[in-house]
Write the structure tokens for this entry.
Amino acid sequence: MQLPGRDLAVFIASGTILMSLLIGVVGLPLLLNGLKRRADPHAAEEWISRWHAAQAAIRAIDTAQENLSVQMDEAASARCTDSAARVMSLYRRRLEGLGEEDEPCRAARQSEMVEMKLRMAALRAESSELLKMRTQQAINDVTLNKLMREIDLSETAIVNRKKGAST
């Protein structure tokens, strides 16, 4: 036994669902296109915080390097100084990227983007090589899983850093 008007009710319900989806997918973006996004009210605070944090990190690295070098022989002290310089350069580049001048800031961001792409390419190559080694049975599953987990964590850190830089 079929209810009278059942086909009509199903047709109307289906039409209503489809229209609401079309309005949501097509209409809303068109309506919202003209609206300006509000500036992030915390952007200036975040910028200042990043600036001060990077400055503090550079000072801490310098102090730690001086303290460590006192306890080392000349060769170890030179390696320590080299390591401190590499870590400091990361923070100095971060400060350049936070700069207010357009050209150095743009160049720093472009350099950082190139570095991220190069790191991602290197991680993909590492991953591919490890999978090939496992296929050839040059390494076991435990070693593969451990090394792939490290690669995944590095890749996640790069992706999250890229997302943070683009917001």
Q: What stands out?
A: The two ends are 59 Å apart (CA to CA). The CA atoms of residues 8 and 21 lie 20 Å apart. The chain is about 85% helix and 0% strand.
